[in-house]
Amino acid sequence: MRQSGILMHISSLPGPGGIGSLGQEAYEFADFLKASGMTLWQVLPMGPTGYGESPYQSSSVFAGNTMLISCAKLKADGLLSYEPEEEYAPEQLDKVDYAAVKENKEMLLRRCFDQSERHLTRELEDFVQQNAWVKDFALFTAIKNQFGGAMWSKWPDHDIRVRRKECVVYYRSMLSLEVRYHIFCQYLFQRQWFALKKYCNGLGIKLFGDMPIYVAEDSADTWTHPEVFQLDKELLPKQVAGVPPDYFSADGQLWGNPLYRWTWLRFHGYGWWVERMRHMAKMYDFIRVDHFIGFANYYSVPYGAPNARNGKWVVGPGKHLFNVLNKKLPGLPIIAEDLGCLSDRVYKLLDYVKYPGMKVLSFAFGGDDGNPHLPANYNENCVAYTGTHDNDTVLGWVRSADENALNHARRVAGFDDLEDAPQAFIRTVMASKAKIAMVPMQDVLCLGSEARMNLPGTIGTNWQWRMLPGATTRETAQRLRDINIACQRGK
User: Fold this and answer.
1) 372 inside domain
2) Is the pTM of this model over 0.70?
3) 337, 338, 392, 443: which is the annotated catalytic residue?
4) Catalytic hit among 136, 290, 338, 392
5) For position 212, which CATH number holds?
6) Are 232 and 62 a contacting pair, CB within 8 Å?
7) Among residues 427, 415, 438, 413, which one has the least CA distance to residue 482?
8) What are the beta bridge partners of residue 200?
9) 31, 77, 94, 390: which one is catalytic?
10) Annotated catalytic, 390?
């Protein structure tokens, strides 16, 4: 079946509290998708945000971002009481002020913990039993807060850095109330997430998640399982991830994530990866694996290097990892983010696993007819996008494109006026051979660069965009439905 969907992160939804949440606004967006004839809702990584509020630098690959919990829903469920004026109400509705949101949400969640934890003993016990990771994540977060937010590799107590058994017991006891609070918050997140998932699935809409290939250096994962990563005796990374210099960046991109000890993982049956993918498969109906090429070969940069110029390519685990995953977790619904440096080894791995790759229409123009992002070159087994969270919006792109690329786009997508470009791009990807077509919500709304979600390599203004209340009109839904019907997508 040919499918279509919208890329819209939870934080970008409208609603109370200064940030999109898993509350009523999420259910209303699911209704909009249904009315639009869409069957997929793609979100960004749902973990706690890290440096620069990036969801790709999370403190856990298992935990949820508690800032996305709906306090209004907690109130409706009888778990939290507060007056309307106690919830943060921003003056600017189209941006997230993360500092203000965190301060307010933290206050309300701690009140919810005080009011309701004792009434949920059985549910919390079941939650902990079904999520073995949560106790270590909660302890990690509690200790990190105890030490003023310092990276775990810089905690002043060496014994807890290296997880000496008696020291872990000591901190678990000393910080027991704080540990319980963080477990409670993760329970609330999952309670709301899976309620939303059930609602979406009931409408025939599947949730399309995003999984970064790497984890953050300062994460519960590296602290709890240092053996999985390339760390030295002081538990600092030996090598870190990035991508080499290219046309867009003379220094490359230095991501800084610790790399995996693939030989050790293979010897131990890739157990950590199996559990990670098992959790992802429970969370989502489709899983976009970011930087999939890193499984074929990954770029390794010495820790402490000022940029990514002096890295080297290293052979990754390749098909052996996916043989194990397919045996342990058959039928994993993976989409491979295969953008970037494609070598013969990457092509061979993609051909072997048969996962759909990605095509991005915004990348198609200004070159020759062999560009793989041109719709004429798509095969059916791919996911076609007008753009991604890392690109400018279509309207922003056409406003800044050079004349050659713009004229090429006009010929392929069929538009004259720049303001018509977003709708032309949407029609083009929807009409393509790709079995899945995805559109960022900013392009549905024909927004410009002010609505861009992320500009890679920068910090300070990313991940902030929010859709204004009332933007999902009946007319917009009907326009998308008409395109879906014309392009034979959806049900």
Assistant:
1) no
2) yes
3) 337
4) 290
5) 3.20.20.80
6) no
7) 427
8) none
9) 390
10) yes
- 430 lies in a domain? no
Lookup: tokens for 90: 């921003």
Strand stretches in 387-457, DSSP E: 436-440
Tell me whether residue 120 is in a domain. yes
> For residue 335, what are the domain limits?
3-356+435-486
Residue 400 lies in a domain: no
Rounded Cα distance between 190 and 210, Å, is 17
Alpha helices in 37-97 (DSSP H): 71-76
Q: Give the pLDDT of the chain (491 residues) as one tens digit per residue.
A: 899 999 999 999 999 999 999 999 999 999 999 999 999 999 999 999 988 899 998 999 999 999 999 999 999 999 999 999 999 999 999 999 999 999 999 999 999 999 999 999 999 999 999 999 999 999 999 999 999 999 999 999 999 999 999 999 999 999 999 999 999 999 999 999 999 999 999 999 999 999 999 999 999 999 999 999 999 999 999 999 999 987 767 888 899 999 999 999 999 999 999 999 999 999 999 999 999 999 999 999 999 999 999 999 999 999 999 999 999 999 999 999 998 777 899 999 999 999 999 999 999 999 999 999 999 999 999 999 999 999 999 999 999 999 999 999 999 999 999 999 999 999 999 999 999 999 999 999 999 999 999 998 788 899 999 999 999 999 999 999 999 999 999 76
290 is catalytic: yes
Count of structural domains, the chain:
1
